[in-house]
Design brief:
about 15% helix; 6 helices; four-stranded mixed sheet; 14 strands; alpha+beta; about 30% strand; Porin
Length: about 475
């Protein structure tokens, strides 16, 4: 078996050196490291005490391309395997150290390249044991490891798979996993470990590969045919060897092909202003333009410079009443309005001529002087501040307005006629205002909404005569604060 392995290795080297070097078949070298370990398949005592070790890997390979994406790659590598181990990992009271196992490996890889820089590979691997030792820590002497005189016991099988990335044309980095299939427990290696253990080599290998490809076959054929006149079937001046369209006359600029029409619109790329977009000759090979970008081309758009909608043939939605709210959203498209009322004018719910936006009592007809609220004036007899039943009935009517508009605040203003002295009239007017405020409070109106102020005889009312003026002046006016 040893002679067979060495013979295969020699054949690999000779084939690589003697083969015609081109892009399909070439040889190269690779170098890397193994992160190896020994795997226990069944009942190895303290198998978790075996740790990975670093070793070298390197050698030759021959790459033979079968197709552009498929190739076969045999390799001949020197590979250092084994494992580090903790104290008592091999046998009781054994010291810590390393198991160093050296192999001559012959992997036969099938390689697939789905993308140009990336190659995936896998295949069987034959490993021939060259030698090794148990390297103990401390003062314990190292121990050489042998399989004896039987050559068959020194040959093992594995499988490997990995990936390679080409950094340059002939330089790449790779990583692979090696999975041992043959039990390495034999001879002095078997004596190291607990009796009955089945042990296998495992490793992660990382490295650098350098290939030495020769010239492409096409270049060699071209060099051999220099003396022969080039064949030019279509007579366009570009030899068939370099003509991408050998049966159709073209130009050298396009490698013997006619001037292309990339978008298929019948206008070749050299005269087409939009070579990647299907267009028309009217627009120099470009599509019919859409100046306003509304999705309707200018030949169909009734308003080509204003973005619009299909409903209005490419024109914007109109605003008939010019209130800034287009007709589709305007509930009163022929009357100027506001966004607050969906395009309609501000309403005047109570019809008092004061629209609801400024009307403090929008549901009760009133006048502008009182914020759109009704007149709420109570008249008193001479020198009298007391509220009569009729007065309270009128105030109850006013309460309906006040309670229905809780955001309004009231100014209760008391007045008196000029009959009597001014000081007495001032007190009388204040009393009249206070009585109305107290009545409202008794009906649930918050005091914070009201102020009561007496103005005495300072604001008299002029009537047809003095008697009528005095009668109208004895009053309390309930106003809505603006």
């Amino acid at each position: 078996m040893r002679n067979l392995l060495l013979t295969l290795a020699c054949l690999l080297v000779l084939t690589a050196l003697q083969a015609q070097q081109d892009e399909r078949g070439y040889f190269g070298i690779k170098a890397g490291v193994n992160m190896s370990n020994i795997r226990s398949a069944n009942h190895f005592t303290d198998g978790d005490l075996l740790n990975s070790k670093i070793g070298m890997a390197g050698g030759l390979f021959y790459h033979l391309g079968l197709t552009k994406a498929l190739s076969i790659q045999p390799e001949l590598l020197y590979s250092q395997m084994g494992s580090e181990f903790d104290a008592n990992a091999l046998r009781a009271e054994s010291p810590a150290g390393k198991v160093n196992l050296n192999y001559l490996s012959l992997p036969i890889l099938i390689r697939v390249s789905p993308f140009k820089p990336i190659g995936l590979f896998a295949g069987p691997q034959l490993d021939y044991y060259l030698g090794g030792k148990a390297d103990y820590d401390g003062d314990v002497a190292d121990q050489g490891l042998s399989y004896g005189s039987s050559g068959s016991s020194q040959t093992f099988f594995s499988v490997t798979a990995g990936v390679e990335i080409r950094l340059f044309k002939a330089v790449g980095i790779y990583g692979r996993y090696i999975y041992g299939l043959s039990d390495i427990t034999s001879g002095e290696i078997g004596d190291l470990f607990t009796e009955g253990s089945d042990l296998y080599n495992d490793a992660l290998q990382f490295g650098l590969s350098i290939g030495f490809p020769g010239k492409p076959k096409e270049e060699m054929v071209e060099a051999q045919a220099v003396m022969a006149p080039p064949l030019d079937t279509d007579g366009d001046g570009t030899p068939d060897l370099n003509d991408n369209c050998p049966l159709v006359a073209g130009s050298a600029k396009y490698n013997g092909c006619p001037v292309p029409d990339s978008d298929g619109d019948g206008i070749n790329d050299e005269t087409d202003k939009c070579p990647a977009l299907f267009g028309t000759s009217k627009y120099m090979g470009c599509p019919v333009p859409d100046t306003d970008g509304d999705g309707f081309n200018d030949e169909q758009d009734k308003c080509p410079t204003q973005a619009g909608t299909l409903k209005y043939n490419g024109c914007p939605t109109p605003d008939t009443d010019g209130d800034g709210i287009n007709d589709d959203n305007d509930r009163c498209p022929t009357q100027r309005g506001s966004a607050q009322y969906n395009g309609c004018p501000v309403p005047d719910s109570d019809g008092d001529g004061i629209n609801d936006d400024v009307d403090k009592c929008p549901h009760y007809p009133g006048d502008a002087a009182n914020g759109g609220c009704p007149d709420m004036t109570i008249y008193f007899a001479n020198a009298e501040p007391t509220l009569t039943a009729d007065d309270k009935a009128r105030l109850d009517k006013a309460l309906e307005v006040i309670n229905d508009n809780p955001s309004t605040n009231l100014s209760i203003e008391g007045h008196a006629s000029t009959v009597g002295d001014a000081a007495s009239n001032m007190k009388l007017s204040q009393k009249r205002a206070d009585n109305i405020m107290e009545y409202f409070k008794s009906k649930g109106v918050a005091a914070t909404r009201m102020t009561a102020t007496g103005y005495g005889e300072t604001m008299p009312v002029t009537g047809a005569n003095k008697a009528e003026g005095d009668l109208l002046s004895r009053r309390v006016v309930i106003k809505v604060k603006q």
